[in-house]
Design goal:
The chain is α+β, with helices and mostly antiparallel strands and 243 residues long. It is 19% helix and 27% strand. It is built from six helices and 17 strands. The longest helix is centred in the C-terminal third of the chain and has 18 residues. InterPro entries: Paramecium_SA.
Length: 243
């Protein structure tokens, strides 16, 4: 059965409108450069344009974006990131290519796109990679398979299941709810004011007027910078507390 997933975004409620928090809202100078859509410049996370637009030595360029490096110590340039297919069998399972996590499947090194791909990796790496992708995958009958809501056995963990992502940055989740002493699949309209924001990974927000869990529709204008930082910090605090 195909999972009914929701696409992830980030949002907040303002003046009776659901507003998308724009990309590159990451405050951390450590996390920002690892988002390939972003660049850390002059103390803030901004949209990535091109490595050629940035200047600095090797360490400075790599602190701007994981995509950049410097050979002459003066200006940034694109870092050459190998494809999974460039790795041999010996190195493949330890690597991450430009497409995402690599695995030696069949007779070649290729990107892992789903839990069942991990099941085709030979040797101890099959179970290691399956366990490392614990938010999406599980070992069942000696096979690596996609997790389902029914695999969550208590009400506190029955919130969502991540879809597998090659970069471990899930773009969608399957919502879950606790019903009749078991965890089952859910949809946004099954959520309430207390669960809407957290269970959708901050992609939906409770509309106090319609009493529904509502997806962000996009910003009519950029969010107020003064309020934006507060919103992000509150969202992070909620996430940490909920773990």
């Amino acid at each position: 059965m195909r999972l009914r997933r929701i696409t992830l975004s980030y949002c907040y409620w303002d003046n009776n409108k659901c507003i998308d928090i724009q990309d590159c809202s990451i405050e951390s100078p450590i996390d920002c450069p690892y988002d390939t859509n972003c660049a850390y410049l002059e103390g803030k996370c901004t949209k990535f344009t091109s490595c050629d637009n940035y200047v600095g030595d090797k360490s400075s360029c790599e602190a701007i974006s994981i995509l950049c490096t410097s050979l002459d110590g003066k200006k940034c340039q694109n870092k050459v990131i190998p494809s999974c297919s460039d790795y041999n069998e010996e190195d493949c399972n330890y690597q991450e290519g430009k497409e995402g996590e690599c695995g030696f499947i069949g007779d070649k090194c290729q990107v892992i796109k789903q839990c069942s791909d991990i099941d085709q990796i030979k040797g101890e790496f099959e179970f290691m990679k399956c366990i490392l992708n614990i938010h999406s995958c599980k070992v069942s009958s000696s096979k690596c398979v996609q997790k389902k809501c029914s695999d969550l056995t208590d009400s506190s963990s029955c919130q969502y299941i991540h879809a597998f992502d090659p970069f471990d940055h899930p773009q969608s989740v399957q919502l879950c709810k606790w019903e009749d002493s078991r965890c089952v699949e859910a949809m946004p309209n099954d959520l309430n004011e207390a669960t809407c924001f957290i269970d959708t990974q901050y992609s939906y927000l409770w509309n106090p007027n319609s009493k529904t869990c509502q997806k962000c529709n996009g910003p009519p204008s950029p969010p107020n910078p003064d309020n934006f930082g507060v919103i992000i910090r509150v969202a992070i605090m909620i996430f940490v507390i909920s773990q």
